[in-house]
Amino acid sequence: MLSGAYAVLTGAPALVVAVDRYVLADSARMATFLTPEVHAALGDRSAPWFDASELREGDKKLGLGSSAAILVASLAALELAAEPTLTDAALCDRVYQRAFLAHRAAQGGGSGVDVAASAHGGVLAARRNGSGALELSRVALPSALHLEVWACSVAASTSAFLLRIAEFAARDPLTHARCIHAQADAAESALAAAVRGDAADFVRAIARQVTTLSALGESANVSIVTAELGELARLAAAQGAAFLPAGAGGGDVAYWVGSHAPPAEFAARAQELGLSRVSLSLGARGVHAVG
């Protein structure tokens, strides 16, 4: 998720992008591990084997939506076993809604934008409607942007962060509403800049979300923008760029966005703080058959 974290749950637009790190699922083999999301979708049916190693570094998950990707790939493998000639579009149609509902059931909520990216691919604007479904449209990021993804030294639990924010909303609804409104306004600005192809305004809108997410986290007493990410965000701002947690925050991954690559000083400091650059491409193909 590039933009709109937390505010997407209240109807603000999120920008979400698929990356070329895939889960491979094979219906000819049985799963050696059953995720809660796949179990929610299949119940007692046998689940296919999967390999999600591209979404991990060693024993740590990268925070690139692995639970959604495993679910989408698993459902797709079963569909392809029954009908091997399905096109990408038909395969996406078969699995997206089922995956969306199962993911929400297993995680007790969430926006489902990672399911949308896994199924549809590309760059998507996603807005939640009154029924909780996502209204999706394809967008293009401004061509003048340079984006780099960095893995944090700690993994984060999106569901745990969502619970803390929900507790904050119940405890102090007025402050919560004020924080979410500020984040939503920045998310709207990011989408508008992307639609216009305005790189400078896009970077400014992402930089605003460093501020709005920091304020939300401080009010909720949860570290959405960690101290390390806050320091790197300030270094990025001095370069006319932005550095933002990619999603719920608290760890996992963050990304640099600006008109140029991070300077050597930024990269050195990021590595000193325990971050490592993740090699990937944005706007990747969604669910599809291989082989």
Question: What's the short story on this structure?
Answer:
By secondary structure, the protein is of the alpha+beta class.
Structure description:
The mean pLDDT is 95. The protein contains nine helices and eleven strands. The strands form four sheets. It has a four-stranded antiparallel β-sheet with strand order 9-10-8-11. Helix 1 (36-42) packs across helix 3, helix 2 crosses helix 3 (88-107) and helix 3 runs antiparallel to helix 4. It folds into two domains: 14-138, no CATH class; 141-278, Alpha-Beta Plaits, CATH 3.30.70. The chain is an alpha+beta fold.
Keywords:
single chain, 291 residues, alpha+beta, Alpha-Beta Plaits, four-stranded antiparallel beta sheet, three-stranded antiparallel beta sheet, 9 helices, 17% strand
Spatial extent as radius of gyration: 18 Å
The CATH homologous superfamily of the largest domain corresponds to: GHMP kinase, C-terminal domain
Class of the largest domain in CATH?
Alpha Beta
Report strand %: 15-25%
* Domains, number: 2
| Secondary-structure element order, N to C | EEHEEEHHHEEEHHHHEEHE
Number of strands: 11
Give the mean pLDDT.
95
Number of helices, where a helix is a run of at least 4 consecutive DSSP H or I residues = 9
Helix content: 40-55%
Spatial strand sequence of the major β-sheet: 9-10-8-11
How far apart are the first and last residues' alpha carbons, in Å?
29 Å
Shape: globular
Give the low-pLDDT segments: none
CATH topology of the largest domain: Alpha-Beta Plaits
Largest sheet: 4 strands, antiparallel
Second CATH tier, the architecture of the largest domain: 2-Layer Sandwich
Structural class: alpha+beta
